[in-house]
Amino acid sequence: MSKRIAAVSGGLGGLGTAICLHLARAGRTVIALDLPRPERLDAFRRETAGLDVHVMPLDVTDFAACGEAVRAIEAAHGALDILVNAAGITRDVTLRKMEPAQWDAVLEVNLGGVFNLCRHAVEGMAARGFGRIVNISSVNGQTGQFGQTNYAAAKAGMHGFTMALAREVARKGVTVNSVSPGYCETAMVAAIPDAVRAKIVEQVPVGRLGRPEEIARAVAFLADDDAGFITGANLPVNGGLFMSF
Ligand code: CAA
C-alpha cells in the first residue's frame, strides 16, 4: 500500500500542529494548510524537522483556493486520503454585542471551511474507494458556551454536516467523523480571561486542560485504515467536561 497522504487545515495552529506531528509519526505524508503565518512558520518547521510534513498556504474561506490546494496536493504528492478540518477561530462576545462581522467570520472559517475543503476532496476519495475525513468540532458545540453563539453554532453545525456527509459516502469507503475537544493547552484557550479559564478548569472532572497530543491521538485513531466501520460518529475528548451517551 502506498503511503497515505493527509491534509490538515489549521495545520500551523495549536491542535493542528499536534495533529500534523502525530499523523507524520504514524507514517503519513502531511500537508499543513493554513493562512500564511510567518511568525509561526520557523517554529513549525523546527517541530516537524525530519518528518514528511509540508506547508501550503490556504485561506479555507476561499472556495476556489481550496479546490486549487487539493489539486496541488494531488499533483505533488498523490491521492489525498485523509482530510482533517482543524481550522477554527473564536470571536467571543455575547450575542447582544455581537456584530454581523463576528458572526460571519466564525461561521465562514469554522463551518464554511469544512464545506469548501470537503467539497473538493470527497470526489476523489469516493472515486478511489478510500477516504478519512475528521472534523474538529468542540465540546462547546455540544453544550453551548456563554459568549459563543457564533462558535457554538458553527461547531454544532459541523456535527450535522459530518453525519449527513457520512451517509452520502459510506458505500464508497469514505468515513466522516468528528472529534470534539474540550479545553486544551492552546493559544485559543490561553486567550480566555484568566479568571474565566480557572472557573472552567474547576469544572473539568480530570482537573486540567487537555494536551494537544491527546486530541491528535483521537484524530489518528479515526483516520486509520482500520477505522472503516466508524462513521458519522463524534468522539469527545474533553476530560469529562461533558458526558453523554
Ligand atoms: N455563565 C453565566 N454568566 C456569565 C458567564 C457564564 N459562563 N460568564 C460571565 N457571566 C456573567 C458575568 O458574571 C457578568 O455578570 P454581571 O453583568 O451581572 O456582572 C456578565 O455575564 C458579563 O460577563 P463579562 O464581564 O465576562 O462579559 P464580557 O462582555 O466582558 O465578556 C466574554 C464576555 C468575552 C464572552 C467573556 O465572558 C469570555 O471570554 N468568556 C469565555 C468564553 C469561552 O469559554 N470561550 C472559549 C474559548 S476556547 C474555545 O472555544 C476552544 C474550545 O473549543 C473549547
Automatic annotation (TrEMBL):
Keywords: Oxidoreductase. GO terms for biological process: monocarboxylic acid metabolic process; poly-hydroxybutyrate biosynthetic process. Residues 4-215 form the Ketoreductase domain. One of its GO terms (cellular component) is cytoplasm. The keyword Oxidoreductase applies. Transmembrane segments: none annotated. SUPFAM superfamilies: NAD(P)-binding Rossmann-fold domains. The keyword Oxidoreductase applies. One of its GO terms (molecular function) is acetoacetyl-CoA reductase activity. PANTHER family: 3-OXOACYL-(ACYL-CARRIER-PROTEIN) REDUCTASE, 3-OXOACYL-[ACYL-CARRIER-PROTEIN] REDUCTASE FABG. Belongs to the short-chain dehydrogenases/reductases (SDR) family. This is Beta-ketoacyl-ACP reductase. It comes from Vulcaniibacterium thermophilum. The lineage of its organism: Bacteria, Pseudomonadati, Pseudomonadota, Gammaproteobacteria, Lysobacterales.
